[in-house]
Specification:
Blueprint: E1 4-5, H1 6-15, H2 21-24, H3 38-56, E2 63-67, H4 73-79, E3 87-92, E4 104-108, E5 125-130, E6 139-143, E7 149-154, E8 161-166, H5 169-178, E9 187-190, H6 192-203, E10 208-214, E11 216-217, E12 229-232, E13 235-237, E14 246-248, E15 251-252, E16 260-263, H7 264-270, H8 281-285, H9 287-303, E17 313-319
Parallel strand pairs: 2-3, 2-5, 3-4, 5-10, 11-15
Antiparallel strand pairs: 1-7, 6-7, 6-9, 7-8, 10-17, 12-13, 12-14, 16-17
Keywords: Methyltransferase, Transferase
GO biological process, one term: methylation
Organism: Intrasporangium calvum (strain ATCC 23552 / DSM 43043 / JCM 3097 / NBRC 12989 / NCIMB 10167 / NRRL B-3866 / 7 KIP)
Length: 325
């Protein structure tokens, strides 16, 4: 197959109806574990609701929206933790999964940066994009030996690459502003598409809090060879955009328009997540309670672990003024 721009092949490889990895090969849980699964997901859901109350006050959100919901793992934890008056909406590219809690509303999305048209005018809303932006396809570029940034093309069936033409002016301007230290031979993941997707999500909220949670990096610490990679059946592999694997790249988190940017470790610790082992005396008084507390402590420790989920970045945007009774 003829090479095409990476972002085009990436979009088809994940989201095309007859090819896309997320459409035809099961949800993320079939290929890797995320922080939304199991007990860590329950801890994360409750922490997100505590974040809402810290940022927006005592009243519960009217709606919680999980964008890029997979098969509803985080949404399922959220619906078990929210106030009964709060609606929970999950958004993903597949039809509603079987067995999903009836209290969760499901909205199909086109995938990538595109959002459903009727996901709009969200009021008093907590909106979460957990590992969403890293699978919004972006332009992949490389600086040639003459110091010119050129778009990387890829053969969709083999993953073979070659350099194409120069970047579009808007992409080149993004690199100049947000990835300024590239040198000949370096690869750049142009985050303009992610910035646009984030801005579109924020625009759809009239009042509330929007949170993006993802692996990412900051200016001054951009990876010189980029982060584009793939996963298949729990194993990291070479990215070939043929629909056989999940393809992802870390997010330039500081290019997003956000009010607060911090690591997951710091955010969760500020919300009381410590991962501390429960007192052994509890094991004698109530062995089952001790085992539950130990399980929760282990999940908390995993969510804040250096070199693991704790290295996620959280970008948060406050929209409008809270409705104070």
């Amino acid at each position: 197959m003829d090479p095409v721009p990476w972002h085009q092949a990436w979009q088809a490889a994940l989201y095309a109806p007859d090819l896309g990895f997320y459409v035809t090969r099961g949800g993320p849980s079939a290929h890797f574990t995320t922080a939304t699964h199991g007990v860590p997901g329950a801890v994360l859901a409750r922490a997100l609701l505590r974040l809402w109350h810290r940022e927006r006050g005592e009243s519960p959100p009217a709606v919680v929206v999980d964008v890029g919901a997979g098969r509803g793992e985080l949404a399922s934890h959220l619906v078990g933790a929210v106030d009964p008056r709060t609606s929970v909406v999950a958004v993903d590219v597949v039809p509603r999964p079987e067995g999903l809690d009836a209290r969760i509303s499901w909205v199909e999305s086109p995938g990538g940066a595109a959002l459903p048209e009727d996901l709009d005018r969200l009021d008093d809303a907590l909106v979460i994009g957990h590992e969403w932006l890293d699978v919004v396809p972006c332009v992949i570029a490389e600086m040639d030996q003459e110091g010119h940034l050129r778009e990387v093309l890829v053969a969709p069936d083999t993953g073979a690459e070659r350099l194409g033409g120069p970047l579009e002016p808007l992409d080149a301007a993004w690199v100049e502003a947000h990835w300024p230290d590239a040198s000949p031979g370096d690869r750049v993941e142009v985050g303009r598409a992610r910035d646009t997707a984030w801005a579109d999500l924020v625009r759809r909220v009239e009042r509330g809090l929007v949170v993006a949670i993802d692996y990412g990096h900051l200016v001054g610490g951009r990876p010189s060879q980029g982060t584009l990679t793939a996963y298949r059946s729990g194993t990291q592999t070479e990215p070939v955009p043929d629909g056989s694997c999940d393809i992802t790249a870390h997010v330039a988190m500081d290019s997003l328009a956000a009010d607060l940017l911090a690591t997951q470790r710091d955010v969760l610790r500020s919300l009381g997540v410590r991962g501390a082992t429960p007192e052994h005396a509890l094991a004698q008084r109530d062995p089952m309670a001790y085992l539950r507390a130990l399980e929760r402590a282990s999940a908390e420790a995993e969510l804040i672990r250096v070199g693991g989920f704790g290295d996620f970045w959280w970008a948060m945007k406050r929209v409008g003024t809270p409705d104070v009774p």
